[in-house]
Amino acid sequence: MSGLDRSKMRYEKIGSDTDTSSTESLLSDPEEHHYTRPTARSRAWTTFNSVLFCASVGFFTLGCIQRYPSNLEIMKRTSFYSPVWDSIKLGSHDAVVSGSLWTHNASDPFRDFTTPNPDVEAHWQALEDIRVFPITSAQLRRLGKDPAVSVKFPPSYGLGDDAYMAQVDVFHQIHCLNLLRHQAWKAYDHEATIRRPPYRPLHWIHVSHCTDILLKNIMCAGSVDVVTYQWLESQHRPWPDFDVNHKCRNFDDIVAWQEEHAVPVTWGRNVTRPMGFQEVRMPDLFFELNNVTREFVAAASKEDFEQDHMGHGP
């Protein structure tokens, strides 16, 4: 074949039983690939996957919302039903309930401290101002009350035929505490006798401290549970129904926890301060009430000026 003119030679493809060999597939011209119209079945699968994806995103978002409820929702879940929850915008905040025995915070308008205070009395009267508002028969039933014996507002008030009287319980609680406060301070001006000497200033500090602590805890808890009204035999004016529904913590469980975890009583009572331990400064009022100076107490025996905890310590 050396004498052949190679420039004139022509190569031709040898036919085979199939024209779709792997070599032809790999070397085929890209222009020979044609678009294939999706079948009805493939379109259905695409639609199904899209719907499934959107549903998954929706359920995930909803799960996140339900997993992290608002503060208001948490308060509602831990309270008995109250119509107040339907419309109140109730916030919450962290606070230190200041209950110092010896330090009088002048900005606290509700603490008498060592003597009755007319300004404090005025603030208490404003705080326990109990107002009434309308609720419906459906809301009454959710409270476990019978509309048949509950007090309606008169038609002349223009509140409609389904308006029943109710009040917010927290203000009733403050009223009860204020009554006890008044009873305690009644003894302030009593005539001293040998059998009944006048109370020391420390007694009134104690009274004002306990009252103040209870008031601040009532206000901190801020119960929006509802007191309804009923017609009571022999009474011509609405009478509060003091059988109020609450969602309560099991107090017996708290008592049981303390019994299980508390150390023996004598352990708390016999604890004394070690030498060299850092002290918290005692307010000046302590020394004024004992009619001594800070320096005198420092030089005297500690036991001579040990202050009774008045039920507040071990």
From TrEMBL:
The keyword Transmembrane applies. GO terms for biological process: mycotoxin biosynthetic process. It comes from Beauveria bassiana (strain ARSEF 2860) (White muscardine disease fungus). It comes from the Eukaryota. Residues 17-28 have a biased composition (Low complexity). The chain crosses the membrane at residues 47-68. Keywords: Membrane, Transmembrane, Transmembrane helix. The keyword Transcription does not apply. Residues 13-35 are annotated as: Disordered. Belongs to the ustYa family. This is Tat pathway signal sequence.
